[in-house]
Specification:
Layout lengths: L9 E2 L5 E4 L6 E5 L2 E5 L1 H8 L7 H12 L3 H17 L4 E2 L1
Antiparallel strand pairs: 1-5, 2-3, 3-4
Helix pairs in contact: 2-3
Length: 93
């Protein structure tokens, strides 16, 4: 699995979009010939990805918003980002 560091900056690759799916309800990542349904937590995390913020900054923002332990959020976010990088719907800038 791809290792994601807190200093990494991640972005959605060309052709991948975060969109609200009004038909099914919820949010999806649209990629060429693929659709990834996101739960509420994944949508919140992916919406923080702007191609400018580091992974560490995203983790800090989520900790501040949700008052959760940083270690837990860091583990969850880096694991999710690594999975999305492997599926080629997220890339390290």
């Amino acid at each position: 699995m791809t290792a994601i560091q807190e200093s990494d900056i991640v972005r959605l690759p060309r052709g991948v979009r975060l969109r609200e799916d009004k038909q099914r309800g919820g949010w999806v990542l649209l990629a060429p010939e693929r659709v990834f349904q996101l739960d509420g937590i994944a949508q919140t995390v992916v919406s923080e990805v702007d191609g400018e913020r580091s992974v560490g900054t995203i983790i800090d923002r989520l900790c501040e918003t949700y008052q959760a332990p940083r270690e837990r959020i860091a583990e969850d976010v880096t694991t999710m980002f690594a999975g999305l990088v492997e599926k080629r719907v997220l890339e390290v800038a």
